[in-house]
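INTERNAL AUDIT FORM
Audit reference: QA-55
Scope: verify that the stored structure record matches its stored sequence.
Auditor: D.O.
Record contents follow.
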Amino acid sequence: MTPRQLPQVTDEGAVEAPRLDLVRSWPAGVPTTATMRISDVLAALKPEFPALTHSKLRFLEEQGLVEPVRTPAGYRQYSQAHVERLRYALAQQRDAYLPLRVIKEQLAELDAGLAEVPTGPQAVQDGVPYAPLRAADRETASSLAADLGVEETFVVALVEAGIVRLDERGGFDAWARQVVLHASVLAEHGVEPRHLRALRTAVDREIGLVEQVVAPSRAKVGRNAKARAEAAAVELGESFTQLHAAMLRQSVARLDLR
């Protein structure tokens, strides 16, 4: 194993991060001198990720997604390259709903030059247009319908059937766009919103299982307890998604269409 290179303190007091080699080469061309405190990183990322906290940053470090430099006094310091890696990881977790394990693998591929920056979740892009999530937007039934090219009455019907649910402020959250998009594809084949109620019921049951599993982690006391519970919930959600997709594809393959 190559010996770990120690950070160097410059005359100005900034900490020079270890040079990025093939193991840590992405993003290229971004400054790697660590001059930012954890509060500076939060200030840079919170406008895009309002729920980000100190504990979430420490948890992402613990999971190996970013490696801030430690000063001789033990304080964390980040570079702009660290911030961009965090921005990528947080966006993939929020927009593509990817587990941290998968995001870490993606970063490793980016580091090695084996992949390009993804534009969205591949599972969503297969077979249908990808509609980017826009968490900061305040969508209405009218704007959502116009943006996705469907009738407003169709969006209203999805809401009335319980397929699309309003958030706590009475608007549509980021994932409503994906639900409407996929429902519109099914509608082209004659599948109406009322036919999708069984899917919503199944999802609600799966969420109940997720809550049961993560409840012990959420109840624990500790600076990273909430972040751990959040990561576990995402992992479970992705596993349910993959399991459902595999079972459905298996059943479709066994259909006797003769």
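Auditor finding: record pair retrieved intact. The longest strand covers residues 8-9.
Action required: none
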